[in-house]
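The instructor's notes for this session suggest beginning with a concrete chain rather than abstract definitions. Hand out the sequence below and ask the class to guess, before any prediction is shown, which regions might be ordered.
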Amino acid sequence: MAQSPSKYSEAGVDIDKGNLFVSRIKDIVAATHRRGVISDIGGFSGLFAIGNDDLKNPVLVASTDGVGTKLTVAKMCNKHDTIGIDLVAMCVNDVVVSGSKPLFFLDYFASSTLDLEVATDVVRGIAEGCKQAHCSLIGGETAEMPGLYQPGDYDLAGFVVGIGDRNALVDGSDIRVGDQIIGLASSGFHSNGYSLVRKIFFDELNRKVDDFIDEFGCTLGEELLKPTRIYVDSVVSILRHQRIHGLIHITGGGFIDNIPRILPTGCSAHIHPGSWPVPPCFTYLAKKGGVAADEMYRTFNMGIGMMAVVPENSVDDMLHRFAAHGEQPYLIGEIKPVQGNDGQQVVIDGIC
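After discussion, reveal the predicted structure:
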């Protein structure tokens, strides 16, 4: 029977297109499923059976995040198949710092009008991120909201649930004076500070995404869309054999705001610039944009996406283990007593 024109479709929401989208991504999503998934995409909820992990006192660990205005760069480049990796990374890296491993992931995709090609590319990226993090994409929400979003715009949010052993959680309480700080290299800007990045590159320097930047060895768009590095594999693998006193995901707030989140009272992190190579994207931005060093360290990861605080006698072993798992580790600082009345918990030599 022929259907009459839909008033809802005329209002900007196409239910049939939404159903087609689900059918398009079904195989992409299924390819991420690990043991524990007991539902298929398309239901009212995603189901995951816990109890498959040999943990004496299991604790569920959850996190949610987005990718900020890096979405704008994806739109400018008309490239949407990596931004989903960023979405997963921002969530799973927050879970793994507690010593937990991700189990499953859900996404939220909102737009004015669903673009099947763009949305499918986004999910491909999410699926790739889930594979890198060894977690399952078990569901999500796709919302068309004409009038709230401008045509061509979309927004993303991600949600991850992980599991850890309550007796083996990493919360920073074991950090002691004398511990050493190992930094793991980032892939670039990751997904933070893009409002400032866009302002400098596009508004002040009048750069275009297809401009080739010699210092980067690629176009500006390629540099800005480098996916956030996912540290799950290396951190989870090492924690099976070695104790890490503290882990820090360097996101918005950079070194200055993130490091104190896990430091016990009386402990201060002293960071030594020059002990790791700062990627050209940061030095270029600081020089061309006139951004002071202290603001750079409070906004960006400066080439270090994850930090591990470890006992002094395990530094060499930890450096070797992280390198063996594909990371680029550097000894970048140590834990000292807090000095002075201000109780400063982060000291970056020569900067702040």
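Then share the key points. The CA atoms of residues 67 and 191 lie 6 Å apart. The chain has a mean pLDDT of 92.
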